[in-house]
Amino acid sequence: MTEAPIADRRSSPRTHHGDTFDDQYEWMRDKESPEVTTHLEAENAHTDAATAHLEGLREELFQEIKGRVQETDLSVPTRRGDWWYYSRTEEGAQYGIHCRTAAAEGDWTPPQLEPGVPVPGEVVLLDGNAEAEGHEFFSLGAFDTSDDATKLLWSTDFEGDELYTVRVRNLATGVTLADEIPNTSGAFFTPDGTGVLYTTRDDAWRPDTLWLHRIGTPVTDDVQLFHEPDERFWLGAGITRSRRYLVIGVGSSITSEEHIVDLTGELTATPQLIWPRHEGVEYSFEHAVVDGEDRLYILHNEEALDFELVSVAASDPQGRRRIVVAHEPGRRLLGMDAFRDFATVEYRSEGLERVALLDYATNALDDVAFDEPLYSAGVSGNPEWHSPFLRLGYASFVTPGTVYDLDLATRELVLRKQVPVLGGYEPGDYGQRRAWAAASDGTQVPISLVWKRSFGEPGAQVRPLHLYGYGSYEHSIDPGFSVARLSELDRGVIFAVAHVRGGGEMGRQWYEDGKLLSKRNTFTDFVACAEHLVATGVTSPDRLVAEGASAGGLLMGAVANLAPELFAGILAGVPFVDALTTILDPSLPLTVIEWDEWGDPLHGADVYAYMKSYTPYENVREGVAYPRILAVTSLNDSRVMYVEPAKWVARLREAGASDVLLKCEMVAGHGGVSGRYNSWKERAFELAWILDVLDLAS
Description:
With 698 residues, this protein is α+β, with helices and mostly antiparallel strands. It has 12 helices and 38 strands. The strands form 8 sheets. Strands 31-32-34-33-35-36-37-38 form an 8-stranded mixed β-sheet, with helices on both faces. α2 (55-68) crosses α4 and α6 packs across α7 (551-562). The longest helix is centred in the C-terminal third of the chain and has 18 residues, at 676-693.
């Protein structure tokens, strides 16, 4: 086995608000330095050597995952215009193949496609495997067809840095046009199909500008339609489902502003402001036609913590507001989708996602009912303004991903597809429930658990447990199915999610209580959940592994410092563990935008002191018996740079941590490797490490 790499320590003092910190591993930030490359390669070699004994288990896990997946499969077709659009996968192929077939007039029932059976009239629009040929990494970004169905637009990223190149194809001839637009973030066709609307990023990786490209003209002639100069705001664009308005939205973590361009006029017309931005007010809108009048339905949080839905005249959006769905504390309104004859409202109540139909005439909400106590559900794949069906996605910890069409006439849920799980999977063999842990301030924190029933109920005996957490950006970790997770459950591991503050599971206040100068609640909540699971006999510290990624990786680093004795192992994916260094530097990607989430330590001494009190890298403890730690990162990650876990691992080793590993993908981004087989292998690597920590590797 190789010796763990010991990084050089080079003085690099940083002073803010009278406090100096000597960041002795900051030299690793130079991505182009041969020394940095050599160090990362040494870390990978050490990790390979330290986990070599798990090679057989990794292959076994990979084969288990692969063996449960129907490799040749098809999605449920979605109707847009005169075509049914779908994707399919083929055994042995890494990427999806995007296709369409003609729809019969008036037929809204999707065709029943059978794996391995040729689809009559199939047109292959894009084969991801052909696109990826010759590249170690491939990510498909934008994918759009023109309204007249004659052109295809798609964008690709071959590095993992989320900068995409847009191309256009004539679907009648199969010829890829000369148009090529580099360094985009999003893209879609103009309604007439003669142009491409796309966004680009600034030097800090912030989408900030919307452009119009006329197909067949040089990119240098593209017209700038909108630019957002404020570094705290990012920009996005789209077209309403009604195809009436171009929408240009700008937003920070806490403030938003929307503009529209009426597409019955010129696309280059000056955008109309809906509501002016007001610090701390977020809103989004949908266009509907009610009793012959164009109206905008606006979801907002002005004096409505958990959001309110109002309606305004499209001709006077800042005029009189009609309340459609009033604010109700604890019922967090998440979004609305408007259709010709009705709308849907998605909301969160008691920690679960809900879907309701909204009647334009009465403003009444009619919930779509599901049977399981824990689940996630949402509106998904409904491009048409008018359809007799509403497409819904559904899953739980024990129910594989499911596609329903809600028959709007009968209110019947019609099952279109459930992801097949091969190998004799029976949902009834597994259980799921929710537990509650008391945080240090008395707050009740929900914990979701899933387990295999044959090993007994949680708490009947001490069992190995895998505890996952995130807790930032109001992002909720909802119940979802995982084929890979079955390999743990079938070995007796209980999987649990700690729904800590900073997420959105329990409403907007739950988020507010886990950000800025309340951020430590996220970390202490996770510790409280772990302590509860130990105290109730579900697990024990020597049989407990924690996992989190990105901002959840920050959570992992923080709890490793707060309560290292509680965990046998910690898996930190693309971990944001050097948060203070990053948030202090406005030249780094996305830093200024992040000030709304974490605070501005550059200009606020109180924020600086608070962040310094918890940021994992600066709070590594000397002489502490840390649990086993595996940090996974990617060299081309543009969100959480590789340097953060690299520095953290070096600091942990310096402090005496005895078993700390770093795995750096040298051609990948924030989401890890590309390709389904590669991602299964990556997860098998992580699961093998987890099982080894839990003494289940054999």
